[in-house]
Structure formats: structure tokens, C-alpha cells
Design goal:
The protein is mostly helical. Helices cover 85% and strands 0% of the residues. It has a domain at 17-46.
Length: 52
């Protein structure tokens, strides 16, 4: 019984870790998209390229 509980805790830890890594990767990609949007807007603001 103790082995089963230990295994369940290990499994939960791995799932939590994988979820955390996935969340941060997703968040980083979102941050990059937001930054690209701001950069495009800023360039249009200073007249470097048209806002399309």
C-alpha cells in the first residue's frame, strides 16, 4: 500500500512539472507575440513602416 501511495505522489509530481513547463513555454510564446505586436505598432508610430 505504501508503494502505491509513493508511486501516486511521484506521478503527481511529474504531471505537475510537465504542466508547469508547458505553461511557461506557452506563456513565453504569448509574450513574444505581444512584443512583436508592440514593435510593429511602435514602428508605425514613428513612421518606419505602415500599420497593416
Amino acid at each position: 500500500m505504501a508503494k502505491l501511495i509513493k508511486f501516486a505522489f511521484k506521478l503527481a509530481a511529474y504531471v505537475g512539472l510537465a504542466g508547469g513547463v508547458g505553461f511557461f513555454v506557452q506563456r513565453r510564446q504569448l509574450d513574444e507575440k505581444v512584443l512583436m505586436g508592440f514593435e510593429k505598432y511602435f514602428r508605425a508610430l514613428i513612421g518606419q513602416e505602415p500599420l497593416a
